[in-house]
Amino acid sequence: MIENRENSIEIDKENFRKIGHQLIDDISDFLSSIDKKPVTVNKSPSQLQSILGNNTLPENGTPATELIPRVTNLLLNHSLFNGHPKFLGYITSSASPIGALADLLAASINSNVGAHILSPMATEIEKQTVQWLAEFIGVSPSYGGILVSGGNMANFTAFLAARTAKAPKNIKEDGLSNISKKLTVYCSKSTHTWIEKAAILFGLGSNSIRWIETDSSNKMNNKVLEETIKKDIENGLQPIMVIGTAGDVSTGVVDNLKGISTICKAYDLWFHIDGAYGVPAAVIPKFKKLFHGVTEADSIALDPHKWLYSPLEAGCTLVKNPQHLIDTFSSHPEYYNFTSTEGETAQNFYEFGMQNSRGFRALKVWLTLQQVGRNGYQKLISEDIELSVLLFDLAKKHPELEAVSQNLSITTFKYIPLNYKGDNDYLNKLNEELLNELQTGGELFLSNAIVNEMYCLRACIVNFRTTRKDIKEIIEIVIREGRETHSKLQLK
Ligand SMILES: *Cc1c(COP(=O)(O)O)cnc(C)c1O
Prior knowledge:
By secondary structure, the protein is α/β, with parallel strands linked by helices. It is built from 14 helices and 13 strands. Helices cover 42% and strands 13% of the residues. Belongs to the group II decarboxylase family.
């Protein structure tokens, strides 16, 4: 009977409260004692599969009262915790607890933020979030944009807008094969791999990327950039965009953005900034001049799930003239009746990016921005940078460490045995081994970077739980494990 529809998917009010309260209790216990847990588990995929139980698709249902406690246990005991104060790997931040509550609420309302009519308040919240993010990094709040899943998608979205704006107009109908001049794009050698994916996926091909060399400070060499553009034009190619990086993924270097913008203006090119990691540091008055030129960008990618501490996933594309997004992504199928409300034209986010149905990822970003505020972020981001400088200084002072680089909140360094006289190859091998030991040991989590052909340990601090004490302990752990790894390798 479907009059009084009893079914196995609904959870009645009492049970929902009971399961929910228990879950919230478990999460708050977890968050308040996260520093006591190992950062990660050292288990192989097959060990994890056997813990998981290799059952086939369940034929019959299991009550939620059993499932939620079971999965809570499973995850709390077999995960890597990037919210751990000693997690400084890659560029993955600790997540704001309010973001977890936001996701629960967002999933409960289940707004489809593709169209205004399907998500009236959620769409307005996302619009406000985009505007606040523009204000946060110090560009005009008239920039428009969209939240996407992360930095790659944010850069892809901007790349496509640039292609529409700067490639011949007929590519929409005729595609890329019918254009006479080969399109080219420019970026420094230290640009994140998204650019290669974009060039391949969006039809330009990887040979269309001009990898511009970097200068001694690891910034794109703007002189070489301009010469390369000139030469390409002379050779009948069509440059369309330059990508500047604001915080490169290995060492945190910010390109000379102002210089790039001048070149883009001179040659009528789209100026995109990949600020996925670093651009939020522009909120700190002291760092403003490092990001000089950011206001000239045609588009900017940033990642709230990095230095704004939003839970995964949240990236954002900002575009100076948002009409470029509509020109790129809008289509009007007959079965959409999303026109206007109350005489005003509503913004439909499906016209701003690649997704059609879209979740409400803005909520966690919007709430964290309000909970912390501009001042709170200035403090958090400054402290991350200070801790990174502290790590660099401690490494510099230590006789068994070499401090290699420090930019924004990324420090690279390496372990060198006392009185070491050998070659660089062994040091590379030693530090690689050491990193493997550290990553599986569970006490801390670092990643690696290759700097000047040296294999380095890399710490990126986007973690509001890390303290000075953690940094000092990290040094001790690296030294202890470094010595051990060295003597193990000597015995081999
Ligand atoms: C992290 C990062 C990306 C990729 O972002 P995801 O969120 O991992 O997709 C791109 N560019 C830079 C500079 C980054 O730091």
